[in-house]
Amino acid sequence: xxxxxxxxxxxxxxxxxxxxxxxxxxxxxxxxxxxxxxxxxxxxxxxxxxxxxxxxxxxxxxxxxxxxxxxxxxxxxxxxxxxxxxxxxxxxxxxxxxxxxxxxxxxxxxxxxxxxxxxxxxxxxxxxxxxxxxxxxxxxxxxxxxxxxxxxxxxxxxxxxxxxxxxxxxxxxxxxxxxxxxxxxxxxxxxxxxxxxxxxxxxxxxxxxxxxxxxxxxxxxxxxxxxxxxx
Length: 231
Hints:
alpha/beta; Lambda Exonuclease, Chain A; 7-stranded mixed beta sheet; 8 helices; 7 strands; 20% strand
C-alpha cells in the first residue's frame, strides 16, 4: 500500500511507490492513473482495499520477538520515492523486513507477479535509505492463499526499480499515454479496461487479431457503403 500525498505529474515531487507497480504491470495502466488521474473500481480493486483495511491503521506491536509496524511511511531521497509499507517486521538487531499485502493468490505467473516484486523492492530500498541497514529480503502476503512468498532483493531487482522509476518520470514529463500492453493476459482483470479500450487501440493500430490495415481502416471510416438499389 502506498501513500500519495503529492502530485505525481510534478517532476520535482516524490514519485509514489504505487506508480512503479502499475508501470511494471502495464505502462498504460500507470499512465491512466498517474498521468490522467483516472481510476475505476472493480471486484479486484475492492477486494484489495478490503485486504489493506487490515493493515492501513498505523500501529506497533511485539510479535514473536519482532517489532512489527503497520502502515509505515517510507521514502528514498536519492530516488525521490515516497510511499507506505503495509507491514515492516524489525529483527532484534533492527534489520527491517517489509511485508506487502495483496488480495490474490501467490500462484501467479512469474512475469505478472514481478510487478509485486518491484513494489516490495522499492519499499526495501526506502527502508535501507531510512535505517542504514541492508534489506536483503522481503515477502508478499497473498490473502486468497493466506501464504507468504519470500522475495530476495537482488541487484537485478534493485536496478529494475531504478529503471522503472526513470521510465515513469519520462512518461510524466512527456505527457504521452503509453500504448496498451501486448500481453493480453493483463487486461481482463484491469479496472481501467473500459477507459483503456485495448482491443480498439490494437485494431486501430494494426496489431493483433482483427486489426485493420491502413487501407481497410480508411475504407471503413471514409468510404460510404454502396447505396441500396431502389425497388
